[in-house]
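Usage example:
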Amino acid sequence: MEDFKVIDNYLMIRLPDEIDHHKSVDISAKADRYILSKKVGNVVFDFERTTFMDSSGIGIILGRYKKISCFGGKVYAINADNRIRRILLMSGLQNIVEIVKA
Amino acid sequence: MIEIIEKKDTERITNEMRIEFAAISDNESFARMAIAAFIAPLNPTLEELSDVKTAVSEAVTNAIIHGYENRSRLDDRVYMKCRLQGDVLEVEVADRGIGIDDIRMAMEPLYTSRPELERSGMGFAFMEAFMDNLEVQSEPDIGTSVKMYKKIGTSSWIDSEE
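Running the assembly step on the lines above writes:
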């Protein structure tokens, strides 16, 4: 299961083991509830536990980016392994997401 | 004099499997597990396993949310056919859904017909990138078939460790 934590102005999302379309619907909806109710400006996606991600993960990140970037918010990806990083780069996400090296 | 020529018969089908499952999103992970189990005897590297799982996940997700318009009905079916010819895997993912009007446009990276579902438009691009070959056939109101091929066992363990 994914979990959510708000630290200062950052929403930390610890992503699940596998991210596909089935899981993404729920993660996006929960993230948006946090963004609205806690008024966080930035979102951090933590891939520490994630071993599988398909293009649905790109959708989650892009969708949250669109919601917060117009207010100057930033999106970060942390603890992404080579595989996840490759998928992020293939989709051109390095231009809008700061991929933090562990 | 007898000449013995060892010929590797690449045409011969060495294994085959078909599954049919309801077009509901819970089955995306089922399809990935099924394909992983099917190719396990070929001793794929972690990278190859991951490539195949990602491509199958994209194809099955497309069938569910585009072919069957994300309506989650149990009688909508996704058909997955897997075949091994030596070390070459062939996977076909087919649906009897709405079909694709313009396959070329659908395959364009970042294009999605369902932006409201937060689709990234990268599905076909990932299938192309992670598999060796991709064939898409579609007929409006009849359905779509995606065939993908990949040779398993081409990259060594050391290479894939990076």
